[in-house]
Write a structure and sequence with these properties.
Layout (H helix, E strand, L loop, with lengths): L1 E4 L8 H9 L3 E4 L7 H8 L4 E4 L6 H5 L6 E4 L9 H6 L4 E3 L5 H16 L5 H11 L17 E5 L3 H10 L5 E5 L5 H7 L6 H7 L2 E4 L13 H6 L5 E4 L8 H10 L4 E4 L19 E3 L8 H19 L21
Parallel strand pairs: 1-2, 1-3, 3-4, 4-5, 6-7, 6-8, 8-9, 9-10, 10-11
The structure holds nicotinamide-adenine-dinucleotide.
Amino acid sequence: MKVAVTDYIEPNLNWEMSEMAQRGVEFSAHQLKFAPVAEVIQATHDADVVVVNMVPINSEVVAGWKQCKLVIRHGVGYDNVDLQALKNAGIPLCYIPDYCADEVAEQAIALLLACGRRIVSTRKTLDESSAAGKWNFAGVQPVFRMAGQTVGLLGCGRIGSLVLKKLQTFGFQFLICDPYLSERRRKDLGVETVDAETVFRQSDFISIHTPLTPETRHIVNARTLALMKPTAYLINTARGPMVDAVALAEALHKGTIAGAGIDVFEVEPPPPDHPLFSAPNAILTPHLAWYSEDAGRRIRELIVLEIDRFRAGQPPRHVATPLLGKDVTDGA
Ligand SMILES: NC(=O)c1ccc[n+]([C@@H]2O[C@H](COP(=O)([O-])OP(=O)(O)OC[C@H]3O[C@@H](n4cnc5c(N)ncnc54)[C@H](O)[C@@H]3O)[C@@H](O)[C@H]2O)c1
């Protein structure tokens, strides 16, 4: 049996190589994120299992495979994989949704609190006051007490619901928009849902936790940004293309919203002239919401577990379905 990895973010895959060798599985690892399709096919054409991180898996790549029976996406989102092409070829896509939900929720909360408490921008206040030898708090205001403010969540699945639970102790009010949340899940979480427009209009903080779908692409755009309060903050730890970054940068420059905390970008890494780099009140992190030593280790173990399940004839723990209209937390 052969396993081929198209691309990876770990420093090396020596651990995986040794695990596979112990099982008598042939293993090859590549770095093909920006490679032409022909190279991706060359590296994966005779694999039984293909493990992919960010390489686009499109119909051309799938057509080049001779014996692939399973694709494993290293991560939660699988918008880089053409599910229809895999379906046509009868290949399931296994993804790993349960290795970093705590970390991403914590990153969203960290960005939210850093925005609301102005943790990053007030360093300049400290430096300038230190140089002047007296406090100058001009430009710091307004900061509002967290308790009583409203957090709007777009998407209340694995990560969104953790943000909800972890933030409840702060005394926030919540507005939840998730049209696919089942009645049972709504009851379990003790929430009612509202439409996206209500979230945009009434929230003091909006945090995005939906998958990237045709419906959610640019869900934050010039029109929806204009609905937001001038004192409100936008947090995005989900996927870059959900936010029109040009429109967001413009809103930040004009001060029509108060700030943003952003971990994900439409193109990654974002180019040096990305509009958010020069926008005021933007706290930016390099798509590391998922990262902790524990999560980094866990996903590697879970991928090896999926290979073991495949070898034992067992189905994947999580099979990807079209990214639309699903409540994955209900019985998943
Ligand atoms: N930044 C990172 O490092 C990182 C790491 C892991 C996951 N993510 C991203 O976080 C996001 C959430 O992941 P998750 O595991 O919670 O996913 P999930 O599938 O568990 O939850 C997504 C929720 O969004 C809801 N939803 C779907 N379409 C919607 C819409 N149009 N409006 C409102 N809600 C909608 C679904 O019903 C579901 O409840 C994904 O985009 C994922 O790719 C980012």
